[in-house]
Amino acid sequence: MDVQELHDRGLKLRVDMFGREAVSKRMSALGDFGKPLQHIVNAYAYGDVWSRTVLPPATKSLAMIAMMAAAGHANELRVHLQGALKNGCSADEIQEVLLLVAMYCGIPSANEAHRVAAEVLSEGR
Amino acid sequence: MDVQELHDRGLKLRVDMFGREAVSKRMSALGDFGKPLQHIVNAYAYGDVWSRTVLPPATKSLAMIAMMAAAGHANELRVHLQGALKNGCSADEIQEVLLLVAMYCGIPSANEAHRVAAEVLSEGR
Amino acid sequence: MDVQELHDRGLKLRVDMFGREAVSKRMSALGDFGKPLQHIVNAYAYGDVWSRTVLPPATKSLAMIAMMAAAGHANELRVHLQGALKNGCSADEIQEVLLLVAMYCGIPSANEAHRVAAEVLSEGR
Amino acid sequence: MDVQELHDRGLKLRVDMFGREAVSKRMSALGDFGKPLQHIVNAYAYGDVWSRTVLPPATKSLAMIAMMAAAGHANELRVHLQGALKNGCSADEIQEVLLLVAMYCGIPSANEAHRVAAEVLSEGR
Amino acid sequence: MDVQELHDRGLKLRVDMFGREAVSKRMSALGDFGKPLQHIVNAYAYGDVWSRTVLPPATKSLAMIAMMAAAGHANELRVHLQGALKNGCSADEIQEVLLLVAMYCGIPSANEAHRVAAEVLSEGR
Amino acid sequence: MDVQELHDRGLKLRVDMFGREAVSKRMSALGDFGKPLQHIVNAYAYGDVWSRTVLPPATKSLAMIAMMAAAGHANELRVHLQGALKNGCSADEIQEVLLLVAMYCGIPSANEAHRVAAEVLSEGR
Q1: What ipTM describes this predicted complex?
Q2: pLDDT, tens digit, for every residue of B67-107?
Q3: Closest Cα of chain E to B93: distance in Å?
Q4: How far apart are CA A72 and CA C67, in angstroms?
Q5: Mean pLDDT, consecutive 10-residue segments, chain E of 125 residues?
Q6: Counting beta carbons within 10 angstroms of the beta carbon of residue F31, is it exposed (0 to 12), middle (13 to 18) or buried (19 or more)?
């Protein structure tokens, strides 16, 4: 497969998951300086890894939420919470992952993640 | 509910997930010094959070794997990989989570987690 | 002991440490979504671990400050700096812990923690 | 060498790298509470480690950027990006380090670092 | 004060805390390559920060244990557990800090730290 | 460019940097389970990011060492220390980066990294 195809497949999946407007905004936010990183995101993260089909998108989203909460990446957590809602995860499912975060990453990581999740959930209504 | 019931419910779930022998070994490994921590694990982690039923155990296991790989907890990752196999996760599903780890936590975290997973998978055969 | 008693004992200790208003605000901030996490905080963190009496509360607060600064949890650090003042820690004692942070977790972690501590100390006057 | 000399040598280097105004502001920002930490920064970080001459300052700056992006220290990353520009690093060189961050620390760390870098680069023009 | 005095004061304190043999072993373990780092440890960490007298050594040791457990530095945790015993901390006091680690850094960090602590405590008997 | 070309270019660069034997060993270590991750390493990390030519390989290696020491990835640090020697970095240059690690990530991270570096340097002789 050509790398350009990988990129385009990834971009399409990313737009399906977050909406065209949000993706356009993120892709242009850092101008030329951000282009090689956006290529990594589109071609390698979405065009390759996210395009795998063994797990349903909702399960991948829950794994992403667990990962981003564990690593303390609040901005990225917000993005993947939005993706989780789009992929069909419920508030209760998200909550259950974040309670595992409380016990296995500690209360402060869970507090931070709950705060972001409560915001995304209220925007999503 | 009494705290003792919470503990017993958690211990039962933990034994179902990892086998009686493995749990006994972990519970006694640190003697009296480890008892209050084992109480936290049994009563609060398994008796409360793991006993919630919104998500299927396999999905929780995949979230745990994502979390432990992100946080670099190799020993705990091993334990929850064993739990994942018990909860019905396949090698392909585990692999797909670990490829998300590669892109979102970096190649070294994914390398480490793959190494542990390959060991657990070969023991599990 | 009943879990409800554990919760109530923890909530009482938490209110003693941070004041009723601050605790009410935190407990209701995330509505129903935050309830299970608040239960973990009240019953397990304060009702169990913080209720242990081997160490004086001031020493536990200094350990908490060390831990939160090491983990980079700025919001939780703020909360536990407020608790430290309530538990009788002085600015000089807090400073001495944060200088250990500088040498053992690095200057950036210490910078961040000093910034939060300077704010909490000036509010506390 | 006297510790005061170490401090003065470090302070001079720090002022050369960030400008007198920026350093004065940082040194006085936290008043007396911040003084012992500022001593560590001036005497030990700049007076000792940064005063070593095996590596050119630009290379040290790129290593600092890698380190701060990996550790998720956004404020300190901003400071050392400013130092990197002063030490002669180009936007392209900074970008290349941050793409290594993408692959070896994950996309979220690289996103965060790109955001800070894009701001510092636009201020620097 | 001369930097050499700072170094000697630090080395003396370090020897008081860990014993001459252990310190000699650590200081020579990495030969010339390790010398500048050993200077940082002796002069800046022990000669400056540890030489402050606001907090009793036992309290500093408990803060160090909290910090090292939070950051996942198992080797350094071992060293500072040995220092804690020398500084008069009891097993119960160490345990109470590690239970805070369980709730605020998560069960895996507490597990790892308990394992190291149980070893150090059994060696110390 | 075809993805296969990207992969082959990356693999060639990787072999130049670490030797054919070491790369073969790493690529086959985890069998089929490790293949998709090895593709990410070859095609995206080496075929894309490492193949950029703005920075000399030695500078990239020093940035990698800083990054891996900051993140506490001891195994990956070892690999990139070997790459650094191959890319022409001296022991003194590596040491200078690791002293920045001591001040900006803390003494324990620097201790760990020095230990690995001393081993790699003695093997390299």
Answers
A1: 0.97
A2: 999 999 999 999 999 999 999 999 999 999 999 999 999 99
A3: 23
A4: 15
A5: 96 97 95 97 98 98 98 98 97 98 98 98 81
A6: exposed
Cα(B85)–Cα(A43) distance, integer angstroms? 31
Q: What is the pLDDT of residue B97?
A: 98
Q: Determine the distance in angstroms separating the CA of F24 from the nearest CA of chain E, rounded to an integer.
A: 31
Both tokens of B88, joined, read 């019905």
Residue in F32, F50, F31 with CA at minimum distance from that of residue F41: F50
* CB-based contact E45:E114 (threshold 8 Å): no
A vs B: CB pairs below 8 A: 99
Asked if E2 lies within 8 A of D1 by C-beta distance, the reply is yes
CB A96 within 8 A of CB C35: no
- pTM (global) more than 0.90: yes
CA dist A50 and A56 (Å) reads: 10
What is the DSSP code (8-state) at residue C114? Answer: H
Find residue D2's DSSP bridge partners.
E2
For residues E103 and A107, give the distance between their C-alpha atoms in angstroms, rounded to a whole number. 6
How far is it, in rounded angstroms, from Cα E30 to Cα E37?
10
Instruction: Check if the beta carbon of residue A115 is closer than 8 Å to that of residue C78.
Output: no
Residue with tokens 């599903």: B93
Rounded-to-integer distance, Cα B54 and Cα A118, Å: 18
Q: How many other CB atoms sit within 10 Å of the CB of residue E31?
A: 10
**What tens digit of pLDDT does each residue of E59-72 get?**
999 999 999 999 99
Burial zone of A88 (CB within 10 Å; 0-12 exposed, 13-18 middle, 19+ buried): exposed
Looking at the DSSP bridge assignments, the partners of residue C2 are B2
Point out the residues of chain C with pLDDT beneath 70.
124-125
In whole angstroms, give the CA distance from residue C97 to residue A120: 36
Put simply, the answer to whether B107 touches F30 (Cβ < 8 Å) is: no
Shortest distance between the Cα of E49 and any Cα of chain F, in A, equals 13
Report the percent of chain D where pLDDT is more than 70. 98
Q: Which residues on chain F are in Cβ contact (under 8 Å) with D54? A: 90, 92-93, 95-96
Under DSSP, is residue F2 helix (H, G, I), strand (E, B) or coil? Answer: strand
Q: Which has the closest alpha carbon to E67: E104, E23, E12?
A: E104
Q: What is the pLDDT of residues B18-71, one digit of tens each?
A: 999 999 999 999 999 999 999 999 999 999 999 999 999 999 999 999 999 999
Q: Which of B107, B37, B120 is CA-nearest to residue B74?
A: B120
Q: What is the pLDDT, as a whole number, of residue C9? A: 98
E52-79 as b/e: b if 16+ CB within 10 A: eeebebbbbbbbbbbbbbbbbbeebbbb
Residue A104 is inside which H or E element, if any? helix A91-105
Structure confidence at residue B124 (pLDDT): 67
Instruction: Give the bridge partners for F2, in sequence order.
Output: A2
F72: chain E residues, CB-CB within 8 Å: 72-73
Residues C113, C98 contacting (CB under 8 angstroms)? yes
Q: Which two tokens stand for residue A50?
A: 């996210």
C-alpha A113/C-alpha A104 separation (Å) is: 13
Q: Please tell me which residue of chain B has the smallest CA distance to F68.
A: B108
pLDDT for F57-102, tens place per residue? 999 999 999 999 999 999 999 999 999 999 999 999 999 999 999 9
Amino acid at the residue E34:
G
